């Protein structure tokens, strides 16, 4: 009888212990869920919950709450655990590196482009990066992968694939013309050099493409990459300057020339290949074309009097060289905010934005701009529109309808970019609007 009571007592203690542990687990789960739900609510209010491009989608039936996806993401707070399953929080902040996809032990995550409500225009590209126009390939941001590491890998793979199908045609000048010298274009140029192709790389602006236009201090890389003719680049939290310096060193070492300020305006069939026509009238014939252009295309103009002026720019390159100027920055995105924060250090800055509040800003940028306004480090005018630009002043229409005149030396316009959709269509490339379709799915 005594042994029986002892067993009951032991089992009772174990049961109580299990109940306490399980209760503590449920309490922790409930608290974690409430925290995540609060973050989701804030993200919705700030316009960050709805994805704008590539983003993770979780299969709740496969998720086992390992947390591996959350730990793997260098952006933080893109994903969280709610009710025991992973879920998106700040989906619009995802930059598509796929770390969560690769880290998930149960393959519960896939990467999608667009949503049911918001479509994203993408060209038709197969697994070899070839479009529906045989001989024209697309890699990098325009194909839906914007992260530098992914763009570098795609540029390399695209050249590897197209090189297999290059046939002799002595009447054409080049084996390959690469259009764009951003991350994918630089990688493609290095791979073409490695494979001994006769190629030419054209860039409408400067080496680095979109990366070149970022503010100097902007962090542009959060994970390592494998660069052809160089090897593994083990850089974390890398600034624009460091990355551009690396690229220049690798290109110089391999005697690769990037032809800058060569905007391609037309690609048309020519003698079983293509003729690539540049804005200045030059043209080149080639067997293959690889497009590594960004999604922004050409800067969007405001179309106001005085916009065609030397004092107007659509990108900020060397902010430290600008001192003691009256500057107006137009825009409400991260580029406008980051540029304003840099310019205000040595100048008198007015930030004009057409809406009544910012949305889709990175949380740090949102906090920094609010702090700057509170401390009167810059002048913020919401619900405003720039209506004209003159030699020594600008005119801004404010919410009341009144036109304000501000002393002005420089104007920076960050109104986004016009997607080069028409350019692609003119080349015969099919474009489809993707509504929440998977780009990366379960590993095989």
How would you concisely characterize the structure shown here?
The protein has 444 residues and is an alpha/beta fold. It has helices at residues 2-45, 68-72, 99-103, 148-163, 183-194, 210-213, 240-253, 334-343, 363-374, 421-426; strands at residues 55-58, 79-82, 85-88, 109-113, 120-123, 136-138, 174-179, 199-202, 219-221, 225-227, 231-233, 238-239, 264-270, 273-278, 283-291, 298-299, 312-313, 326-330, 348-352, 379-381, 385-389, 393-397, 403-407, 410-413, 417-418, 431-434, 437-440. It folds into three domains: 2-113, Alpha-Beta Plaits, CATH 3.30.70; 125-297 and 420-428, FAD/NAD(P)-binding domain (3-Layer(bba) Sandwich); 300-417, FAD/NAD(P)-binding domain (3-Layer(bba) Sandwich), CATH 3.50.50.60.
Any descriptors?
single chain, 444 residues, alpha/beta, Alpha-Beta Plaits, FAD/NAD(P)-binding domain, six-stranded mixed β-sheet, five-stranded parallel β-sheet, 27 strands, 29% helix
The H-level CATH homologous superfamily of the largest domain, spelled out, is: FAD/NAD(P)-binding domain
Instruction: Please report the total strand number as a whole number.
Output: 27
Question: In the CATH classification, which architecture of the largest domain applies?
Answer: 3-Layer(bba) Sandwich
Our estimate of the beta-strand percent is 25-35%
Indicate the overall shape: globular
Low-confidence runs of at least 5 consecutive residues: none
Give the total of domains. Answer: 3
Largest sheet: 6 strands, mixed
CATH fold call of the largest domain = FAD/NAD(P)-binding domain
The level 1 CATH classification of the largest domain is Alpha Beta
Return Rg in Å. Answer: 26 Å
Mean pLDDT score: 82
What is the end-to-end distance?
Answer: 60 Å
Secondary-structure content class: alpha/beta
Q: Which bin fits the share of residues in helices?
A: 25-40%
Q: How many individual helices? A: 10
Oligomer: single chain
């Amino acid at each position: 009888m005594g042994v029986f009571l002892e067993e009951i007592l032991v089992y009772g203690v174990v049961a109580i212990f299990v109940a306490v542990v399980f209760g503590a687990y449920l309490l922790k789960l409930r608290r974690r869920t409430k925290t995540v739900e609060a973050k989701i609510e804030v993200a919705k209010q700030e316009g960050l919950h709805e994805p704008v491009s590539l983003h993770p989608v979780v299969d709740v039936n496969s998720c086992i709450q390992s947390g591996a996806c959350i730990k793997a993401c260098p952006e933080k707070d893109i994903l969280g655990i709610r009710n025991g399953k992973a879920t998106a929080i700040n989906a619009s902040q995802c930059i598509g590196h796929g770390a969560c996809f690769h880290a998930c032990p149960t393959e519960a995550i896939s990467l999608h482009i667009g949503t049911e409500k918001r479509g994203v225009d993408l060209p038709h590209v197969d697994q070899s990066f070839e479009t529906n126009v045989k001989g024209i390939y697309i890699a990098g941001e325009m194909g839906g992968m914007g992260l530098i590491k992914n763009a570098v890998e795609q540029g390399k793979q695209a050249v590897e694939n197209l090189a297999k199908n290059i046939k002799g045609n002595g009447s054409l000048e080049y084996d390959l013309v690469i259009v764009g010298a951003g991350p994918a274009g630089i990688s493609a140029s290095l791979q073409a050099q490695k494979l001994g192709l006769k190629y030419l790389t054209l860039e409408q602006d400067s080496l680095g493409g979109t990366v070149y236009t970022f503010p100097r201090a902007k962090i542009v890389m959060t994970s390592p990459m494998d660069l052809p003719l160089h090897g593994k680049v083990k850089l974390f939290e890398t600034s624009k300057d460091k990355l551009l310096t690396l690229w220049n060193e690798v290109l110089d070492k391999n005697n690769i020339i990037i032809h800058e300020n060569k905007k391609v305006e037309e690609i048309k069939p020519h003698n079983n290949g293509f003729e690539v026509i540049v804005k200045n009238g030059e043209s080149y014939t080639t067997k293959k074309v690889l497009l590594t252009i960004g999604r922004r295309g050409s800067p969007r103009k405001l179309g106001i009097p005085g916009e065609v002026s030397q004092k107007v720019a659509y990108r900020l390159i060397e902010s430290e060289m600008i001192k003691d100027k009256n500057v107006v920055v137009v825009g409400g995105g991260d580029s406008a905010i980051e540029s304003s924060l840099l310019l205000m250090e040595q100048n008198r800055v007015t930030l004009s934005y057409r809406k009544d509040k910012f949305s889709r800003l990175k949380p740090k940028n949102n906090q920094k701009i609010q702090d700057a306004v509170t401390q009167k480090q810059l002048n913020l005018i919401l619900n405003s529109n720039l209506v004209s630009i003159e030699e020594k002043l600008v005119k801004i229409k404010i919410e009341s309808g009144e036109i304000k005149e501000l002393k002005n030396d420089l104007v920076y316009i960050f109104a986004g970019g016009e997607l080069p959709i028409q350019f692609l269509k003119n080349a015969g490339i099919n474009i489809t609007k993707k509504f929440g379709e998977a780009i990366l799915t379960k590993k095989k």
